[in-house]
Amino acid sequence: MKHINVLSRIFFTGCLFGAGCATTPSSRLYRLDARSETVEAQGEVVSRIIRLNSVTLPGVLHQPTVITETSPVQIHSSEYDRWAESLERQVAEVLSRNLTALLPNAHVVRGRMHPDLKADLEVHVEVLQLSGTLGDQARLDLRWSQSRRGEASAALHRWQGQRTLESMDVHAYVLAQSELLAEACQIMAKHLLSP
Is the pTM above the cut of 0.90? Predict the structure, then answer.
């Protein structure tokens, strides 16, 4: 009888362990994507250097989980939907890649990379909002300052955009944010090209 009880306990424990393992979902990792198509260089090649000096995000976005909104006063942090790397680093990389595609006559560098290069333009980007509600909309609100070498004052610009989400999944949300960043870069590129 004792032998049967021991076997029953082992079987029961094995079932619990197996059930626990079978129901634990794995994490889904996401990354933003540069969406701007490369523009062909026009005229002579200009050796203008643009330094994307800094990119900052709201404090709530400094965590590995994907944050979305469920109401104007409530956010949702998904346990299993995570960023593949720092969101701040991803935004900086995507902005840099998009601007490089849109400004073929310029050389875009990030932060302190290539410290020996003297930049013709210094750009600082502040993301004010990168949010959305699944199944509804994704929103992006950012401002940036740009200053030319030797100038004390900086021009300040702001851009806001939104995209309708066709589905309730995080994948659609991340794609929409990538598209919004590409659209913001089109506006930024126009300002960066202006005299």
Answer: no
